[in-house]
Amino acid sequence: MARREVPTERAAINAAMWKTAMSATTGSPTAIAAQDHLISELDSLTQHRLTRLMQSTTRLPTVLWCVLLVGGVLTIVSACTLGVENWKLQALHILALSFLVSLSLVAISDIHRPFQGLIRVGDRAFQRAAEDMQP
Which of 53, 63, 93, 135 has the fewest CB atoms within 10 Å, i.e. the most exposed one? Predict the structure, then answer.
């Protein structure tokens, strides 16, 4: 996961654990309760694994990094030039803040269109679902 690769051998282990949990025969109320607890814990384990996989393969889009970095620099610069009476610095202050607002609007518009633009949703999730559904 550190190399942004999805480990495929773990899926077979996960499938084997589910198969073992579902094939257990239950007769007594204690065994039924134990199997119910096993299934809920296995479900939780699977959900945590999927979350971990998603977090290891996703990253913050470049547009948002630009907004964060430029916004941080412009905020610090505007805080330093706030009380200056030079009209040129005030004009630069207003221009910088206008640029920050424009950059934020560009980032919002890119995020608003998830299937086109710089930030796009790929079809990898559909491919993985198709792979998982095959026997």
Answer: 135
